[in-house]
Specification:
The chain is of the alpha/beta class and about 350 residues long. The protein has 2 domains: about 170 residues, NAD(P)-binding Rossmann-like Domain (Rossmann fold); about 180 residues, Dihydrodipicolinate Reductase, domain 2 (2-Layer Sandwich). It is about 30% helix and about 20% strand. It has 14 helices and 14 strands. The strands form 3 sheets. It has a 6-stranded parallel sheet, with helices on both faces. A 6-stranded mixed sheet has the order 10-7-11-14-13-12. Helix 1 links the parallel strand 1 and strand 2. The chain is globular, with a radius of gyration of 20 Å. The model has no long low-confidence stretch (mean pLDDT about 95). The structure holds NADP nicotinamide-adenine-dinucleotide phosphate. The site of NADP nicotinamide-adenine-dinucleotide phosphate has 27 residues, from helix 1 and helix 14.
Length: about 350
């Protein structure tokens, strides 16, 4: 596979730091540019990130020496220097749209972790194992933006990245209704226990905007490409609750599901065990070998024990059993800043690279 020069926009943030750890020795992508706000621009990355470095692994020396650019003022230079950028920034929505479209219009593709482009019908929102065929809409988007090469691709919200993969291989049984209660880690808010001590021994029953995303985004993932755009699925009916819990990393979901044709427990377990998506078939570098992992032990999956499975890119499932109101219930877990954020972004970029979208 060809090598690509890449940039990280929002490099000093929680997701940006994850991108750096994943890209520091990536076999295809070479980290060339780090960019953030004007507060960080001109400083070495070491100075700019300072005590905010929240990764368990130390900052690589050569990355610490890189000089941070201004994501907005230096856009032209950055777009020229790299083959594509990853983007995860905390800015007002209109500015994020302008930033991402700005890079795309300079013929620099953007793989984004931000929410702003998720509902555009010509922007693929990728869980690479579930909807790789949505890449086809990039051609429509390029016509809209007037670009030859530039486009925006996004990854969905971290809250859906355990239950959508677990439900995906069961769609053949007709998903009718889904209820998901999400227990979400504090890193999802860009925080640690040091920066958010109020979360120790606590639970907050509200995460702004999260339930709407958790209910709407799966319908786009399960949508079909028609006339060059993604038409969202109309079923299943989904309802969710999202709670912030005192866990550093790893979003857990308690899921209830009703089918048109109720499968047996054995059929569900077989569908999970055998499920492979395009990343597994293409053997992409960040793809987990086994995407969905079922634990027989009733005490699993546990956030602390299981979030790092297959480099934090796998989904862990447990406690599958029949339910009185629905057909079945189960519990699933995914690492919110790896599979749910930067890792999911890197895997999406690997898929786009393998399909020739950056050439
Ligand atoms: P964060 O830790 O607050 O980091 C924000 C980043 O944005 C920093 O690098 C910051 O740079 C940069 N930034 C702020 N204002 C800017 C400006 N005017 N121009 C350029 N860069 C600017 O946020 P985060 O948790 O990494 O989240 C970033 C994005 O990813 C958000 O859209 C979030 O919703 C999304 N996301 C997060 C997670 C997660 O698990 N945390 C998961 C999925 C998606 P400075 O340091 O220079 O201020």
């Amino acid at each position: 596979m060809k090598n690509y020069n890449v940039g990280v926009i929002g490099a000093t943030g929680m997701v940006g730091q994850r991108f750096i750890t994943l890209l520091a020795d990536h076999p295809w992508f070479k980290l060339k540019v780090l960019a953030a706000s004007e507060r960080s621009a001109g400083k070495t990355y070491r100075e700019a990130v300072g005590a905010k470095w929240a990764m368990k692994t130390p900052l690589p020396e050569w990355v610490g020496d890189m000089v941070v650019k201004d994501a907005v003022k230096d856009m032209q230079d950055i777009a020229f220097e790299v083959d594509f950028v990853f983007c995860a920034v905390d800015m007002p929505s209109d500015q994020i749209v302008a930033l991402e479209q700005g890079y795309a219009k300079l013929e620099c593709p953007v793989v984004s972790n931000n929410k702003e482009h998720r509902y555009y019908a010509d922007v693929p929102m990728l869980i690479p194992e579930c909807n790789s065929e949505h890449i086809a809409v990039i051609e429509t988007q390029r016509r809209r933006l007037g670009t030859k090469r530039g486009f925006v691709a996004v990854k969905p919200n971290c809250s859906i990245q355990s239950y959508v993969p677990a439900l995906h291989p069961l769609r053949g049984y007709g998903l009718k209704a889904v209820l998901a209660c999400n227990y979400q880690a504090i890193s999802g808010a860009g925080k640690t226990f040091e920066t958010w001590p109020e979360m120790v021994d606590n639970l907050i029953p509200f995460i702004k905007g999260e339930e709407q995303k958790s209910e709407v985004e799966p319908m786009k993932i399960w949508g079909e490409v028609k006339d060059g755009v993604i038409v969202p699925a109309e079923r299943p009916l989904i309802t969710t609750q999202c709670l912030r819990v005192p866990v550093s990393d790893g979003h857990t979901s308690a899921v209830f599901v009703k089918f048109d044709k109720k499968p047996s427990k054995e059929e569900i377990l077989k569908a999970w065990a055998e499920f492979k998506g395009e990343p597994q078939r293409l053997e992409l570098p960040s793809a987990p070998k086994q995407f969905i992992n079922y634990f027989e032990d009733d005490n699993r999956p546990q956030a602390k024990l299981d979030r790092d499975l297959e480099g934090g890119m796998a989904v862990s499932v447990g406690r599958l059993r029949e339910d009185t109101l629905f057909d079945y219930k189960f519990v699933c877990l995914s690492h919110n800043t790896l599979r749910g954020a930067a890792g999911g972004g890197v895997l999406a970029a690997e898929l786009l690279a393998a399909k020739g979208c950056f050439d």
